[in-house]
Amino acid sequence: MKHLKLSAPVNRWDEAVPLGNGLCGVLLWGDGQNVKLSLDRGDLWDERIGEAENSPLWNFRTLVDAARDRDMTLCHRLCELAKTIPATKIPVGRLELTLAEPLKEAVYELDPAHAAGLLRDEDSGITALSCFCRADGEEIRLSVNVPLQSIRIVPPDYQGEAELLQQAGGVRSVGSLGYPPGREIDSGTVRGYLQPCCEGLNYGILLRELTRGEYVIRILRAGSMEELEGLFKVYSVSDDAPVEAARREHRRWWQAFWHRSRVMLPVPRLQQFYELCRYFYGSASRKGAPPMPLQGVWTADDGSLPPWRGDFHHDLNTEFSYIAYLTSGDFDCGESFLDHLTERIPVFRRHAERFFGCPGIAVPGVTSLAGQPLGGWPQYSFSPTTGAWLAALFADHWRYTQDEAFLREKALPFLSGVAEFLTALMKRDERGFYKLPVSSSPEIHDETLAAFLTPNSNYDQALLLRLFTDLAELSEAAGDAEAAARWRGELEHLEPLSIDPENGLMLSPDELLQESHRHHSHLMALYPLRLLDPAKNEALIAASLRRIDRLGTGNWVGYSFGWMAALNAYCRRGDRAARLLRLFLDAFVSSNGFHLNGDYRDLGDSVLKYRPFTLEGNFAAMQAIHEMLLQSSGGVVRLFPALPADWKRVSFEELRAEGGLRVSAELRGGVLIHAALRSEADRTIRLVAPGMPERRIILKAGLTWRWPVESSSFRGLAVHSEPREVING
Known about the structure:
alpha+beta, 35 strands
C-alpha cells in the first residue's frame, strides 16, 4: 500500500498527515525542524444550548406561519435564535516539537497500512519521529529518534478575542467560548494542561515520557475539574505498555481492518484516494466511539472553532459520510453512527413533542453530539423528513448484514418511530394523499420565502416513499405480516414523484430546478435512495441529467461532484462518473486527501473558492467507485456495471452486496475472468456481468460459488467448493 508523502513545509492543519483511532485524532505537520501534532477527541463537545428552546418562536408553528403569511421575518428570528446557541465541537490544542537540528529534505508521510505518521529525512534516510493513535486503546504514541531542543503543549487561545473569523461556515474564534484560563503542569517526566470549559465538560492533555524519546499522549475528559485532576494523577503513573508491544497490537488491528476487502483500480491516483478514504473510516469511526461529525476527529487548529461548529448535519453530510462502509464491509465503522442515533431516540422523541407537537421520532437537521437541535436556515434545519433519510441507513445496514437482532432491536424501532411522527404531522388532501404542512429541498433558494416549496417536494416525497417501502419490507422480514400490510397501505396515500417530460425530476409539483446548485436533492429518488431502476427509467434519467448539464457546475461544491459521480455510476454511466471523479480530485481535494468543499485551486469548476474541510465528499466519491464495481438490489448482483471504457483491468476482493453476500471478481480487457460469491444463508440470486448472459445462481450457506476461467473464456458452470475465505484468492 503506497505511502502518502508530503514534502515539508506543510503549513496548514488541513493538509497535515491525519491519524486516528475513532476517539482521538492527530494531525502531523510543520517544517524540517518545527513539528506540530494537533490533537482532537471526538466527545469534546460544548453542549450549551442557551435560551433558544425557551423562546415562543422555537417551534414548527413559526415555520408554518411564515409560509402561510409569506413573512420571512419569522424565519430570520429563528436563525438569530440559532446563532445564540454556544454549542460546538471544540479543539484540544497541540504539541510543538523543535528538533535540535533541521532535516535537510524533510518529508511528512502517512503509512496507511499501519496507520502511522512519520517525519523522515529523504537525504539521510532517517526517520526522525513516528506517531500513531493506538487502535486497541485511547492513547497516542510518539517516538522521537533524533535530539530534541524542546517539546511543549500549546492550548487553544481561549483567552483571545471573541470574533467571527469567516462568514462561510460561521467560523468563530476559540475566544468566543469564554472559557476561564487553563492550568499547566510540569513534573519532569510528566507534563500536562488542564482546561475548565463549561458545566459538565473539562479536558486535559497529558504528555508522559516513558523512556528517552518514547512518549504517551492522552486526552482526558471529565465532568468536573476534581475528576479531571484525579484522572491526570492515575495516568501519570499508569502501567503503559512498552512501545513495541503497543505498536504490535496496533498493527494487528489494522491488518485485520485491511483484510476485510480490497479494490484494485487501473488509475494509481484514484487507487490511493480510495485507500485513503477507507483509512479515514478506520481512523475516524469506530464502534464504541463517537460517530464522525463534519470533520471527524480532525478539528481545526488555526485559532478558530470548526466550520459549521463541527456538528452533525443530517441534510446530506452524515448520510454521505456513512454511505460507503457497507460495500467495503466496514460494518463496525457504520455501527458507530447507527448506535449513536439509537441511543438518542429519547432526545429525538422529546424534540418531536416539543418542537412539532407530535409523537414519534423527529431528528433535527443540525445537531450536537448529544442530539440537541442547533438550528440554521430553518426550512432545512427543521425539515420534518430528516429522520426518514437516516432511517434509510438503518434499512440498508440490515440489507447488507442480515443481522436479525439489529433488524428487530434497532432498525424497525427507528423506522417505526419516524413513521409514527410523520403520519401524525401530515394531513391528507381531498384526494387522500399525504401532504406536509411545509416542504423544502435542502438549501434550494437558501434562506428565502421561495425555499417553501409546494408540498410535497420531490426530496420529501422520495424520503416518504422510501420510508414506507422499507418498513413494509423489514416488517415482512421480521415475520410481522400485519405491520407489512399496514405500511403497504400507507404507500397508497403517497403521490408519485413530480416529473416533467422534457426535464425529468422536478423540485416540486410546480417547480423545476432553475440554476446550478450544490444539493442534488430533487434527484434523491434516483440516488442515493435507489427508488428508480435505471433499466426501467432510461428516458427519465436522460432528461434529468440533461437538465443538470444545461445548468452546469458553477454553484457546486466538492460533495456535489462525488454525489453526481455515484449517481451516474448507479445509472451505468461509467465514463461520466470517472470524469466527475477526476474533476473532484483536481479541484476539491487537499494534498492529504481531505475534501475542501470549494474549488480552492481556482480551476474553473465552481464559483465557490473557499476551502472548509468536511468528510462527506470523500465518502461520496468512495461510494462512486463502489457503484462502478459492484451493485446489488432486489436479488440481482451486477459485477462491473459502470466501468469507464479505458479501464481494462480491474478487480476486487470480498466486497459486500445485499443479502449478506461477499463478492470477489476480476475483469481483464472487458472480459470477466474470475468471480466468487459467498452467502451465509441459502439464497438464489441473478448474476449480471460483462460478456456473459444473465444467470440464476443458487448459493448454499457457507459455501463459495466460483466461476472458473481458462484462456480468458468461460468453461461451463462453477460448482460449490468447500467453505474457505476468498481474500487473496
